[in-house]
TrEMBL record:
UniProtKB keywords: Disulfide bond, Glycoprotein, Golgi apparatus, Membrane, Signal-anchor, Transferase, Transmembrane, Transmembrane helix
Encoding gene, per UniProt annotation: Hs3st5
Pfam families the UniProt entry points to: Sulfotransfer_1
Assigned GO CC terms: Golgi membrane
Family note: Belongs to the sulfotransferase 1 family.
TM ranges: none
Active site, renumbered: 100 (for sulfotransferase activity)
Domain Sulfotransferase: start-end pairs: 91-335
GO molecular function terms attached to this record: [heparan sulfate]-glucosamine 3-sulfotransferase activity
Protein name as it appears in the record: Sulfotransferase
Length: 346
């Protein structure tokens, strides 16, 4: 009898203990979220929202963290009303490139900001004729739900190099903010090559060495017909954009610095987007196994970028690297001059 009572008591204690730990974890997760959000943010004054500021923070984060289903299950009528506020908004800012510059990292890191909602997929609306023909409503419907005070950001790195895109974006919104993340051009070209090489290898196909593609074997000069080289001539592409948008509408992100020291780069973007500073060192931690900074939402939720970001590059003949760096040098100087951002590339 005594033994039975002891077992019963032990079971009870176990259940109560689990409940207490579960509740504690839940609370910690929520407090962690609230912590980050309490002091937010007169964003609406910048982006023309009409909602009460007091209501935004918690709702915004709950939505952003995929807690929408919580509302749907146990929703009170008040929460239902908040759900009705959610809209699919055209982006107020676009990361237009550059491919392999760190576009995914930039988007994910900006998404840490409670006033930013990312479009997870690359939409390729402006660079793909078939998509563009579907019209702006099709594009808007591809956007995530957000509150009117929030801003939607999408990234499609092909926009930067595609001829028709600046005019098309201009027609949608001539005052849109444009983010360009760049890396040292030779490194970016090698990264670009590495991505293509990996794709070929996955299909069991052989591929040329980088050196063979980047240098014209007939002239021994840099091969400007090679797309990975052309994409890295940033100033050429930017000049096309400047026919439509003033330089003030662009912000250049240093992709090399975003790898080693992301916070100051993100703070510059917050400023450019007129967002109150909300991303902090707490949200970014260095993961030694990945060799990159990863994202921390609160003490429970964190994530690193997928393994396809941060590939090991193949060894490239140093003389080819030197030749490429020399080739890019004058274009880089022009890029610094136009953008007002000097990046100290070799
Ligand atoms: P590598 O794979 O050459 O290292 P994009 O998202 O535009 O394709 O850019 C990919 C690059 O983002 C990667 O290039 C990587 O160096 C860089 N990157 C920057 N910050 C990163 C981060 N926190 N985690 C992983 N990759 C990051």
């Amino acid at each position: 009898m005594l033994f039975k009572q002891q077992v019963w008591l032990r079971q009870k204690l176990l259940v109560l203990g689990s409940l207490a730990v579960g509740s504690l974890l839940y609370l910690v997760a929520r407090v962690g979220s609230l912590d980050r959000l309490q002091p937010i943010c007169p964003v609406e004054s910048r982006f023309g929202g009409a909602h009460s500021q007091a209501e935004l923070p918690l709702r915004a984060l709950q939505f952003k963290r995929g807690l929408l289903h919580e509302f749907r299950k146990g929703n009170s009528s008040k929460e239902q009303a908040h759900l009705h506020d959610l809209v699919q908004q055209l982006p107020k800012a676009i990361i237009i490139g550059v491919r392999k510059g760190g576009t995914r990292a930039l988007l994910e890191m900006l998404n840490l900001h409670p006033a930013v909602v990312k479009a997870s997929q690359e939409i390729h609306f402006f660079d793909n004729d078939e998509n563009y023909a579907k019209g702006i409503e099709w594009y808007r419907k591809k956007m995530p739900f957000s509150y009117p005070q929030q801003i939607t950001i999408e990234k499609s790195p092909a926009y930067f190099i595609t001829e028709e895109v600046p005019e098309r974006i201009y027609k949608m919104n001539s005052s849109i903010k444009l983010l360009i993340i760049v890396r040292e051009p030779t490194t970016r070209a090698i990264s670009d090559y590495t991505q293509v090489l990996e794709g070929k290898e996955r299909k069991n196909k052989t591929y040329y060495k980088f050196e063979k593609l980047a240098i014209d074997p007939n002239t021994c000069e840099v091969n400007t017909k090679y797309k990975a080289v052309r994409t890295s001539i940033y100033t050429k592409h930017l000049e096309r954009w400047l026919k439509y948008f003033p330089i003030e509408q662009f912000h250049i992100v240093d992709g090399d610095r975003l790898i080693t020291e992301p916070l100051p780069e993100l703070q510059l973007v917050e400023k450019f987007l007129n967002l109150p500073p909300r991303i902090s060192q707490y949200n970014l931690y260095f993961n030694a196994t990945r060799g990159f900074y990863c994202l921390r939402f609160n003490i429970i939720f964190n994530k690193c970028l997928a393994g396809s970001k941060g590939r090991i590059h193949p060894e490239v003949d140093p003389s080819v690297v030197t030749k490429l760096r020399k080739f890019f040098h004058p274009f880089n100087q022009k890029f610094y001059q136009i953008t007002g951002r000097t990046l100290n590339w070799p």
